[in-house]
Write a structure and sequence with these properties.
The protein is an alpha/beta fold and 287 residues long. It is built from 12 helices and 8 strands. An 8-stranded mixed sheet has the order 3-2-1-4-5-6-7-8, with helices on both faces.
Length: 287
Amino acid sequence: MSLQDRTIATIGSGVMAEAMIAGLLRGEQLGADRILASHPRPDRREELQREYSIRTVESNVAAVEQADVVVLAVKPQMVVRVGREIAPALRDGQLILSVVAGATTTALGNVLQRHQIVRAMPNTPARLGRGVTVWYATPDVTDEQRDQAGALLQTLGVELEVDDEKLVAMATAVSGTGPTYVFLVMEALIDAAVHLGFPRHMAHDLVLETLEGSTLFAKASGEHPAQLRNLVTSPGGTSAAALHELESGRLRTVLSEAVWAAFRRTEELGRQLEDATDAPGSRPDRR
């Protein structure tokens, strides 16, 4: 489905929303005049206008009133306040697409008093059209709205629809937070190369090209990573010596614990938001 005749508003136009804006424009399915971003700071609005030539407004309500698709991209702790603010402006037929970490569709439905909601977790490579997004649509989402969500998310890279919302929370810990793990490994390898004696700019290029090439090789081969690792590990060789240190340092365990920590935090945020949005006074007065 084409998005050309749709207006998309991002509420809370931070890093993730900007990645989505950049991805949408890169995909050329939507003109800049069809994207509206709300943000309270004038300097941020000017920055987004200058970089992407999109429209910006200070008012979240004004953005919602002009949108066919509302992308909710605020911090988790702002969901209740912003949700109460925009709920009266929402109208039938609007699709709500949330990229708020941890925010369940139950919590969002409580505060927004709407149930046509897509919960999605993209990641920052979406800015280059190379992201991966796992998303879930509530039963109230129509087929047309589901097609709209899929078309929107395809412009950001790979999109994977799931029928179990918990998989979005799990994806938050793996692919959503994944760039953080990769950047830390990248940083550590660059620092190690500098410690060996490489100039920093050369160390940077060596590491980035190695990571990109290894990823492309893994995708092209279709082999399990363990098979690829064995392919390049000779008995008594340099890779074997390096792997011994990595295994002794519990690299696998630390990575697994990091993923589980991110997942537990995602679930914790979800419970907190459900409690907050179910509390007296948390729901908007729609009279």
